[in-house]
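Workshop exercise sheet. Pairs work together: one partner reads the sequence aloud, the other fills in the structure field after running the prediction. Swap roles for the next sheet.
Pair: D.N. / O.F.
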Amino acid sequence: MPLTAADCARLDAGPDAPAFAALRERFAPGTPGTVYLDANSIGPMPLAAPARVQAALDAGWRVARRRSWNEFDWLDQPRALGQALAGVLGAGPDDVRVGESTTVNQYRLLRLALTLKAPRRVIVAERDVFSSNRYAAQGIAHAGLAELRLVPQADAAALAQALAPGDVAVVALSHVDYRHSLRLDMAALTAQAQAAGALALWDLSHSAGAVAVDLRGSAADLALGCGYKYLCGGPGAPSFVYAHPRWQDAAWPAICGWMGHADTFAFEHDYRPAAGMDGFLVGTPAVLANAAFSAAADLWRGIDPALLDARHRSLTDTLDTLVAQQCGALGVEVSSPREHARRGGHVALRFAHAGALAQALVAHGVVVSARKPDALRLGVHPLTTTHAELWQAVQVLRSLLEAGAWRDPRYQGSSV
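Structure field:
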């Protein structure tokens, strides 16, 4: 039987409804009547974020000035934020730090892996991974510090071929494909890389805060991820970085900064890495960005990862079904995996004119994104999206497809 609006309303009234309604109320609403399906690009804003930033500006910068480093624990932000995120990442409470960008963290974890696995010097990466990840690896190879070996897709067969020569230091994979939302089996591919003597490095940008992540359980060696997507850290929020305890003190970090020194304010001439994840710190924390991120961190501290994953499954299964039932005959194909365990944070559709259709949807109150050549991405957020909103969004999608709205010249320009 086709899903109906009443079915979506019933799903929103399920046994977990009070818990998610309370969480939803801790986020600021957007434009009335607009459905936001862009959490894979930028997550919703926690209600407390503006006040946190204002406090850092006013009580911190304006009034306390340099005293703020002590009075407001600004120097402890990377550790405190990391501890707040650890639960939804399946990490130990002191295994995560927040700081720098995803690209910087990708670079320094690749460099660390090459150090740990010397004299091996091959980086294995996906050919069609998000560009910045590939660029970071290419930059290292261009500098003569490694050889880059690309695999067409991250499956067991392709990885086995890449690992066969026995010279691979690190396999760098994205947990979820940024276009079509394919989620990889972290535990299986990590074990395969490690059995061949390589480290496994994971980018969690399109999974952390949406679906189940278990870094410790999967024995992942290294990981990083974006702070401003599902984790709701705000525009340009810092990235997070993870290292399994077995590697935290195994080598000097790739970038040695004063915040990662064993005695930060000793100002010694020679670098001594701090113990554990503190050695992964680099420069002065991004105080204002971290203040905004702290509003989301307070939410993540209390989230049950299993409940989060179950909610995401219900939402994305519903969206998948609605699109297939109502739009499947109109030229749109669901391209993300149908099974929840193989699907990441967003539901992806394949449509020849995805970019123009995305702009038409935004103009009609459904905020989505597209990626070339043909991916339309609907980024569901498990803490704020409702099943009723998914029904509303699919009705708009169907009407635009039936009208051929993507052909309108207004929607032909480029868009982020």
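Discussion prompt: The chain has two domains: 5-47+304-411, 73-301. What would you look at next?
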